[in-house]
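Researcher: Good morning. I'm working through a list of sequences from a screen, and I'd like to move beyond sequence-only analysis. For each chain I'm collecting a predicted structure so we can compare shapes side by side. This is the next one on the list. No need for commentary yet; just the structure.
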Amino acid sequence: MKKCYDYSSRKKYDDVKLAKMMLLDGCFLLQFIRRGGMINIFKVPKIDFVVQDLFLLENQLPYGVLKLIFEGENFKVGLPMEKNIIKFVTVIGMPEGLSSEIQLKEVNEEPSHLLDLLRSALLGRFQMIKSQPEKEQQPKRKGKLSSSQGGKEGLRWPWKKGKQRGIRQSFRHIKELNAAGIYLKPSRTCFLRDISFKSYFFCGYLKLPPITIDDFTKTKFLNMVAYEMCLDAPDDYAITSYICFLDNLIDHADDVKELRSKHILHNLFGSDEDVAQIFNKISNGLVDPRIYKDVKARIQKHYDKRVNTWIAQALHDHFRSPWTVMAFIAAVLILFLTRVQTYYAPPGN
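Model: Good morning. Structure tokens for this chain:
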């Protein structure tokens, strides 16, 4: 297990000291997770700070250590420990009220640590009971070095692989998309990969997975982004891409308000402006790996059609309430009936 840590951080520990430290930390972690499954951990004062510490990149214990500990212990109450861990992580990661839809399922590859498991849950590595997303292969891992390694040798930078040739993106936030007739809908699942866009004549619909924003959100995403830069992390940069995509849509408090009104974003953090600032800060300095380039290209294609903007603006200006729609339908019906009456009326003298 020594190889899971950078040499400079473990050189002061001999085998006995390191094994003792990992054993104590692992036992505390497993006991905390087991008890966390019996109570609402977020309603216990100050316990949420412990949860945040469990998912800091620098605090990760190799999953193999946890497995050695719980395989040697027989928990007679509740779920088997491995499923308890998955349940705990999915409760942490999923929007409130949706985590109960998770069906516990064996993963194809043993996670590196809890942060890796949390990332997998958010991206849909576990199957939903109410929906059946397509099976996706586990992303390839870049190397055998641990995510706990620090320094430049422990990181990789996706934008250094070559010059990016992204699409010409002219839209900047949700309000601009609305002006072009593009509307938001919640996705079928709460997995972060479940993003899609479809265009129908002069209307377009962008589907985004529901997400809860709370005090843990910023820390959670920053640590997963940092993990994706590590050499042994899955080589897909999915969380980084999601953050960049959402940052393209959120610029002001009005954008957050629109997401809330469509039941896509649940704000447990503060004001809408505070939420907008979270994504602006998380994405600061990131370069988009362009996983969602096809979705952006379809949005841009729809956005570039000026007729869509004109029609959307006309609908917004003249049909903002059901009364105006009813008045318009009534006027059209009256005109139609008048024409019919005129056509069938007997000729005058």
